[in-house]
From TrEMBL, chains A, B:
Domain of life per record: Bacteria
One of the protein's GO biological processes: response to stress
Name of the protein described by the UniProt record: Transcriptional regulator, MarR family
InterPro entries (UniProt xref): HTH_MarR-typ, MarR/SlyA-like, WH-like_DNA-bd_sf, WH_DNA-bd_sf
Any one GO molecular-function label of the UniProt entry: DNA-binding transcription factor activity
Domain HTH marR-type: 1-150
Organism: Flavobacterium fluvii
SMART domains the UniProt entry points to: HTH_MARR (SM00347)
Length: 152, 152
DNA sequence: GTTTTTTATTTGTATATACAAATGTGTTGT
DNA sequence: ACAACACATTTGTATATACAAATAAAAAAC
């Protein structure tokens, strides 16, 4: 569906404006789709994101700063996301003995199990939309987006 | 900045996954940038969006359904967005006499004035990122995004 | 003409985003 | 040692998203 149809616009629109709307709308479509996958597991997209970061630590605990800087949304509130994961026993949290300002967050076995079960569904999700493009177009879309968002 | 640097990823990543992250991150960059513009006016991006839809009505009032279906985020809560705009006297709201289930929302002169002041800044914002691409690339990015998100 | 269904909107609850202020700990300068 | 500063995290407040349930009016069915 073209972006004009999505917002039921009748007047012609500048291509620069179209990019903005297309990026915002595509993000909505992707996350709606992903939320459907996560729904049965009762974790949100951001919570999933935190779990993935923790698994990437391969056993080492991650403190709040590390989690924060690996998240896409740099302003999201890591403390409260970790709170929610704690309640579900998907992570543990303890004060770092070397530096008591820091908090060591580790994914639990239960957390790892949830991720393992989700892995094939997440891969299918990633490829679901990409199937609409050929290999060249996929590379091109990535490079156009990276080029587009450069701040100068 | 390439997406791997953004999330400080060291392991190689599938291109399909990269698109997801690139779209999500680009959306964050765009909206952060746009929020900066809106900040002095004390309206949010979604509130701005509603005002734009109302101006597009050219004098005719819009009911909640119409606003909803023209918004990018189809699940956002129009009632509460309009509430906020009402408090700032940027819109008016009255029950439709022909069909008392419907609510007629109209932009006020104050609302139109705010939009008019914002117009040049918004156009500059739209072109800010597009300047990184040439005319062909802009067209291509739009068509790749539209092709990408097709549900089959 | 009353019941049922559909349509339009509102309200409630949980989660997340955005941002500022507060808290507590470690480090540096004197 | 103590003040000043920097760092890591938490808390508070407003806004927005996501979704289900509630309300109210209009239209359809019988």
């Amino acid at each position: 569906m073209k972006i004009e149809e999505v917002i039921k616009s009748t007047v012609p629109m500048d291509n620069s404006k179209k990019i903005i709307l297309n990026v915002l709308y595509t993000q909505n479509v992707i996350t709606d789709n992903f939320n459907e996958i996560l729904k049965p597991y009762e974790i949100s997209g951001e919570q999933y994101n935190v779990l993935r970061i923790l698994r990437g630590q391969k056993g080492c605990p991650a403190n709040m700063c590390v989690i924060q800087e690996r998240m896409l949304a740099k302003t999201s509130n890591t403390t409260r996301l970790v709170d929610k994961l704690l309640l579900k026993d998907l992570v543990t949290r303890k004060v770092c003995p070397e530096n008591r300002r820091k908090i060591e967050v580790t994914i639990t076995q239960k957390g790892l199990d949830v991720l393992l079960e989700l892995d094939p569904k997440v891969i299918a999700h990633e490829q679901h939309f990409s199937k609409n493009l050929d290999a060249d177009e996929i590379i091109q879309l990535n490079s156009l987006l990276e080029k587009y968002r450069n701040q100068n």
